[in-house]
Specification:
The chain contains 7 helices and 8 strands. With 200 residues, it is of the alpha/beta class. The protein folds into 2 domains: 150 residues, Rossmann fold (3-Layer(aba) Sandwich); 45 residues, no CATH class. α6 links the parallel β7 and β8. The longest helix is centred in the N-terminal third of the chain and has 16 residues. The protein is globular, with a radius of gyration of 17 Å. The two termini are 18 Å apart. Keywords: Hydrolase.
Length: 200
């Protein structure tokens, strides 16, 4: 095979999830990125090493990235030789997402700055360092990209996705009543058809 497709999972996923995409790219090797990074600064160290260990065996590489995996990819792989990217429910504005979570948790910026980390009732840990990193490392992404977005995504507002699409000249497909996490049979069928169409 001359071509590889690297799958970058989101939170709670793993490299084995790449198996789902193998039938959709029958002419490519589909490889799950087996990473340990929990934060974007860790991904910036880890992802290029993992990417290059795969890339050197192929002529071209495409990337599929899910949710936070897409944010890590944007943050860590923007200057790599990626032919095309497919982002599923991508987190494209981490500063905005953290600010939204602070509102949901009723936490002020001064509180977060003082305490550095605050646990929320919805299972996320707010981090002052994370917020600072997101502010200090704005996104630059120039790789041809197709984006799949669920109409009822509870993490990223439509306006945030639309602004990213405009800025990066990406294509955008929206699933009516789709959620952030694509997992039902109907959602996965929509996702598969979107990938097949976008990969042509």
């Amino acid at each position: 095979m001359d071509k590889a497709v690297i799958y970058i999972h989101g939170k709670g996923g793993n490299a084995e999830d790449a198996i789902h995409y193998k039938p959709l790219f029958s002419n490519c090797d589909v490889i799950g990125l087996d990473y340990t990074a929990q934060f974007p600064w860790e991904a910036k160290e880890e992802f290029p090493l993992l990417f290059n260990s795969i890339y050197r065996n192929y002529k071209t590489v495409e990337v599929i990235a899910n949710s936070i995996g897409a944010y890590f990819a944007i943050n860590a792989l923007s200057n790599q030789q990626i032919e095309k990217a497919y982002f599923i429910s991508p987190v494209v504005d981490m500063e905005r997402l953290i600010a939204d979570m602070m509102i949901w948790a009723n936490v002020t910026e001064d509180e977060l700055k003082e305490k550095k980390e605050i646990q929320t009732t919805f299972g996320e840990t707010l981090s002052w360092n994370y917020l600072c990193y997101a502010r200090e490392n704005p996104i630059i992404w120039e790789i041809p990209t197709h984006i799949l977005y669920g109409e009822k995504d509870n993490l990223t507002a439509y306006g945030t996705i639309f602004e990213f699409v405009q800025r990066t000249n990406s294509t955008l497909s929206i699933m009516k009543n789709g959620e952030h996490w694509f997992h039902t049979d109907e959602q996965m069928k929509f996702l598969d058809e979107w990938i097949i169409k976008s990969s042509k």
